[in-house]
Amino acid sequence: MRYIRYAFLACLGVALVSVALANRGVVTLSLLPATLAEFLGLNHQISLPLFVVIFGGIVTGLLIGFLWEWMREYKHRAEASRKAREVHTLERQLRREKRRGAGPKDEVLALLDETS
Q1: Which of 20, 24, 47, 68 lies deepest, with the highest CB count within 10 Å?
Q2: Which is nearest to 112 in space by CA: 90, 94, 89, 99?
Q3: How many CB atoms lie within 10 A of CB 26?
Q4: 23-64 pLDDT per residue, tens
Q5: Which of 1-5, 61-65, 96-100, 109-113 ranks highest by mean pLDDT?
Q6: For the chain, what are the domain ranges?
Q7: Helix (H, G, I), strand (E, B) or coil at 48
Q8: SS3 label, residue 35
Q9: Contact of 25 with 53, CB cutoff 8 Å
Q10: Do 93 and 109 form a contact (C-beta atoms < 8 A)?
Q11: Would strands 26-30 and 45-49 be described as parallel, antiparallel, or unpaired?
């Protein structure tokens, strides 16, 4: 399995290098369209090789996707945290009940004592 991963990473590296070599032309990125930039006075431009723009777009898309998914799963993480606290509280109550009485007076506690 390790060799398959190395082969995949090598193929990915070759593909990324070939894309970078094929797209070395310089492009100009503008913050706003020309007429709007002149009107607002925000004529910011930067010149970069095209492969930097492509890879930057991929990385930006991945980061936005990860952030979106992290925010979407917040309710699941909060529920899991609440359940973990509830389990911890119930375990603490069970230990307290076991210490309180010498013999279990409840059928459920007797079954729990038999299994542990």
Answers
A1: 20
A2: 94
A3: 9
A4: 999 999 998 888 888 888 888 899 999 999 999 999 999 999
A5: 61-65
A6: 25-115
A7: strand
A8: helix
A9: no
A10: no
A11: antiparallel
